[in-house]
Amino acid sequence: xxxxxxxxxxxxxxxxxxxxxxxxxxxxxxxxxxxxxxxxxxxxxxxxxxxxxxxxxxxxxxxxxxxxxxxxxxxxxxxxxxxxxxxxxxxxxxxxxxxxxxxxxxxxxxxxxxxxxxxxxxxxxxxxxxxxxxxxxxxxxxxxxxxxxxxxxxxxxxxxxxxxxxxxxxxxxxxxxxxxxxxxxxxxxxxxxxxxxxxxxxxxxxxxx
Length: 209
Ligand SMILES: NC(=O)c1ccc[n+]([C@@H]2O[C@H](COP(=O)([O-])OP(=O)(O)OC[C@H]3O[C@@H](n4cnc5c(N)ncnc54)[C@H](OP(=O)(O)O)[C@@H]3O)[C@@H](O)[C@H]2O)c1
What we know:
By secondary structure, the chain is an alpha/beta fold.
C-alpha cells in the first residue's frame, strides 16, 4: 500500500508515521509537511505551503490517506484561520487525493463533531467530516477521540490539567469519558487504512482507550 499521511509532525501523526514505516504491508509513505522529517528509504516528505497546495494529481497519488492535521483556536489566532487549517486543508487534500485515485480516507476528527454544534470547534470538525464524506471515497473512516493525552513540546495548560485529572479519575470513568493516547489513536487509524468495509465508519472515543 502507498499511504498519504497528513500531520506527520504532530502528536498523533508522528505515531502513525512510525507505525507505517515499520509495517511491511506499506511500500511507500508520502507525508507532505511544512517542517522537514528525518529521512527514511520508504518515506517521501515534500515541504509544502498548505495555502497553495500542489494541483498536480501525480503528487497526491496513494491508495489510502490518513489525516491527523489540525491546530487549536489559540495557535490559529482567529476563527477564520482555524477553519482554513482544520476544514479547508483536509477537505482540499481529500479532494485532490480522491481525484488521484485514493479509495480510503481516515480522518482524525474529534468527539462531538457535528456541523450543527453550538461549539465552534465541534462545528468545524463536523463540517470537515461532512465535506470529506461528500467526496464519495469507497471508505471514509471518521475517528473521534476525546482529549488526546500525550507529551507535547509546546505548553497547552488547559489540556494538560484536564489530562492529569482524567488520569486520576480513570478507574471510575466509563471508557467514553476517558482520555485517548496518541499511540492508540495512531494504531487504530493505521488499521482502518486497510479496512475493507465500504461506506462511512465512525470510530468513537471509547474504542480508542
Ligand atoms: N488535542 C486534543 O485533545 C484533541 C482532541 C480531539 C481531536 N483532536 C484533533 O486531532 C488531530 C491531531 O491532533 P494532534 O494532537 O496530533 O495535533 P498536533 O500535535 O497539534 O499536530 C497537528 C499537525 O497538523 C499540522 N499543522 C498544524 N497547523 C498547520 C498549518 N497551518 N499548516 C500545515 N500543517 C499544520 C502540524 O504541523 P507542524 O508540526 O508543522 O505544526 C502537525 O503535523 C487534530 O486535528 C486535532 O484537532 C485533538
